[in-house]
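Note to self: user wants both folds in one dump. Writing first protein now.
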Amino acid sequence: MKIVIFAGGAGTRLWPLSRKNSPKQFEKIIDDYSTLQLTVKRCLLGFSPEDIYISTNKKYKKIVYSQLPQIPKNNFIFEPEKKDVGPAIALVCGIFSRLFPNEPLAILWSDHLVKRDRLFVEILKKCGKFIKKNPERIIFIGHKPRFASINLGYIHFGKEKQKINGLKLYEFKGFKYRPDKETAEEYLQLKTYAWNLGYFVTAPNFIYQQFAQLAPNIYKNTEKMLAYFGKKDFSSVLEKEYGKVESINFDNAILENLNKDKALVVIEDIGWSDIGAWESLKEALENHPYENIIRGKVYLDHVRDSL
């Protein structure tokens, strides 16, 4: 099984800690680790460094090399410029479809926190076993909502379809973008909606063929570049051609138009948090809601529930 961790970003969320030249996933937030380092550390509980890949913008090359010395240099995929997640995933899946077309592939993001590391790795491995036998399927990993978030997307799921070694797989019924407060409260009560983490397990060739069908412009541009893959001209062709395709989110390009029968959903509580806003970081670090989270020299006087 291969793991690809995406570590791009514009550095606009969690400002001023996060900046354009050093987005939040590279900042040392938890115990002198960046969330990128924590994501890799988590994956190393169940996977070898050779099976972990990093996709990021070329301008972050020095940062990712210095923070992840354990990852082989050949496992870094550098995008020449920012073109949103759609073209980036097309490039990764295009490369992997040539190297390991039907080997299970997990797509993860570098700016999240997960408290239940070993459970998460166990879920990835079980999903990988399913995809190994069913390479034309995709499994979305959702999270049981802890509260009615209006800042996260949701996965609508249906009845249980089957189990993999005790892990329940549910029917996929669609995505719901960030809801308003009233709708989010309704989702929380219905218990058929889960937070959409953006994590999924599939086979590279399956996703790449979805690009061929659903986003042919991205597919053709990627194929044009990958005709040089493994040759000395590949880097220069990538530099020249990558920016010619439109910027589009992967969800909009592929997932929203995917045949629902090809997808399944896993819903678990892995202690996940998206630290895209200061209040999210506070919620991720706290042990109880009214706790103060302190970094540095701080004087407190009648303060609670603060970061």
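First done. Writing the second protein, which came from a different request thread.
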Amino acid sequence: PFGLRKGIRGMRAAAPSDRDRLATEFVEHLDECLSRYHVELDPDGKHRLSQLFTEAIGNAEDHGGQREWWIGGYLRQPPGNAPGDLNISVFNFGNTICQTLNKLPEGSLLRDRLSGLVERHRGDGSYGRTYSPEETWMLGAMQEGVSRVNDQADRLGHRGTGTFHMAETFQTLSRPADATYRPMMVVVSGRSRVVFDGRHRMVETDTGFGEVRPVIAFNDDNDLRLRPNPRNVHRLERVFPGTIISLRVYLDGDHLQSLASVQP
């Protein structure tokens, strides 16, 4: 187990932040889990994973508006040859992702584009009981350059990809997905749920605004103007007052050994 830990944003400027400290502790825990399968992370791998967790926790701090957040997880190793499942959750309370992005100033390029997607989905009849404008904003939050700090009127930044990169990284570590063992990462915020399950990937795509950016639209055309797959982006019956990022991967010794044998 990686017992539930509480972090607080901005405690002491002179000391390592809770975000950096707990990200490092969790990567060390992950390395200990991997050692059960006779592999370990090299220094570069530890640094990259620590950056992913730091960014994910930073996103939680930015969106929630509260100082406190929590992280916890565990590795479960069933008897026999079944792969172990590694489970991780980061959560906080406060504003939802949709509420945070709706605070973007009027006239900002990012707000205009997200509002345009909402109007397009409303116009083509996409909205109903299981899909609403809130999910469109949530879908937008999964894209590169989508963050509440990207409030310029003439350009988008390059923040907002940490959640996706975490999903991709852990799907690589996980044994190849099949019907029994499917790695998954889920983001829940308010009533909106986004599921990363490997069916859809982030691909460099023409956005239609004279630029090419990494996009994950969760549909076969990888087009944000079209409704996402209902299995991957949908509305929940109940509300969570904040944001949860929850991830499960399956660790298999043979698969990890094959990754370790690949030369960079």
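Dump finished. Worth passing along: Helices lie at 18-35, 43-64, 97-101, 109-123, 133-141, 162-173, 253-261.
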